[in-house]
């Protein structure tokens, strides 16, 4: 017993020493070390970058070893946890479009990409998208991977039977405002009594809010969600509801509705093409794309960023630049439906091809100009949290028949309260 | 019931005996007091330490840390700032918190009582079954070991408003279809059904064990006196099972109040701009789902910690009520 006790202590000491050595190694690897590390890690989520382009990047940059990991589940949460632990932080990481605003207050935990020359290539990328990845004092935290210019997807065959224009150019000319758009609801329902114009009110609210530059909170961190620019979008959504052309679909049954022609149009970003194809493969050739009524807006689109702990910022940014060069963005579009954030890519054959699902239409003719006309906007870190009551109340109108005016009042009141809790004045 | 006590005393003396022997060999006095006596048990402490180390690291520390967080404002990576009781003060005025609490309680009532009643009836029936008993036991227990996520997805498609199988069946028998996942009460009912489906078998197995401890001569006497199965159930089974029923009520309360996965899967993926909202009208927003939304969607960790600690107090209150019921019954 005594011998084994001594041996136990010895073993324990050895283990402890071993752990110490390992920890020391870890220490020299991390940010405190020199900034010319030979191992770089890249984090993204499935479909966040083109896997083929990433594989080529590993071959391209031979003086460092690039290791990529596809992180599943809640990406933001895992990144936050790792950054908080300050070890095993990725050298290059993706940040989703809906999360970027919440990372900007902690810009000091990232490298300002302008110090690495991002400002020199900025002109090749869309200005409003770069701005979304910038702090208010101009530090470039996120470099744009892709964007989500929006458009109206419509069923050409249903439009034809309803006596509406079917050619995308004609549709664009005749349905250019929200009023025009709501007006066609009745025509469609005359031809198809069981069909609707659109899936829900949220789509109208979201799209129209994106057509302006203001959101729920302004640059001075003041709540502006009760003002006219939001109320106008709310009223548009209510207009859809009251016209009876609202399908009131707020769940996964959208899939079936798109597949069987319950909805004649869908409003969404360029990446929604993938969803429509996925939901309704049998409707191939029947869909077309036209500009969003009331002007373009943006929905989604992610960024790449370099955390402060990055072991070799110079090379890491070279890799970012390469991954997001216009040519590789063209491949990203082909491979992962990532709509390029660099307008130079819009002329590449990958984007100018006709799409058989859309009857051979060259959809870039709609999305390209839309992408360049998206108004710049300011999204506060608390914007997403403050916007939640508006979405909840819109679904309450649809599911419970709540009076739109009461819903508006409740939404504003709750949004103010959430804002107060989040430090918005 | 007689087996555990005999095993206890038989096993217990072995440890001190062995210990005395080592004491003699090392020539130390037999009786020791205080810390030295504790130290001499170190192999036993080392043997049980893995659990406690894991418990301290992964359960106790996070628990205490969350209490600390409840008094801070923290976005997950930035600086923490001490805000005192501000989070709790806000909690009291937060209509969504109270809505979530109400939802949780309604879902708990909808699920627990039918579930326990069904479990008891099933256990009674199974107790008198002679054939295929193992098959039935396994069959009823399987839902409990099935993945909640998988089951939630199944329930989701089955109860889908327009294209779900449940509404298809209703329409086939000329009953108008129900907007299951769009109405505030049916949303709660679906979540409760899911929980009932999952936990009935578990409670049934516990009841079955209890039933088998009831002496069969009580039932025989009742039969001789001419009591039917229903009378026997309410006059013999239920009173004899009271302590076990109260045990399952406490367990189900603690489990049922913590419903999270079900609404998260049913309504979690609605939209990127409004994640984990709890479905239309927030009718499926349970307290834990609201906590999750605040912590992991809004990065509002201080407030989220305040929510769970307030909720902890509510659960404590429920357990206290249950406890009083148990104690009261025992005395009576």
From TrEMBL, chain A:
Annotated signal peptide: 1-23
Keywords linked to the UniProt accession: Signal
Region listing for Disordered, in residue ranges: 400-425
Coiled-coil parts of chain: none
Annotated InterPro entries: Bact_solute-bd_prot1, SBP, TAT_signal
Pfam family, one: SBP_bac_8
Basic and acidic residues bias: start-end ranges: 400-413
Keyword Signal: yes
Protein name: Extracellular solute-binding protein
Species this chain originates from: Streptomyces ureilyticus
From TrEMBL, chain B:
UniProt cross-references to SUPFAM superfamilies, sorted A to Z: MetI-like
Membrane topology: Multi-pass membrane protein
Keywords: Cell membrane, Membrane, Transmembrane, Transmembrane helix, Transport
Top-rank taxon: Bacteria
Record's keyword annotation contains Coiled coil: no
InterPro entries membership: ABC_transporter_permease, MetI-like, MetI-like_sf
Protein name: Sugar ABC transporter permease
Lineage of origin: Bacteria, Bacillati, Actinomycetota, Actinomycetes, Kitasatosporales
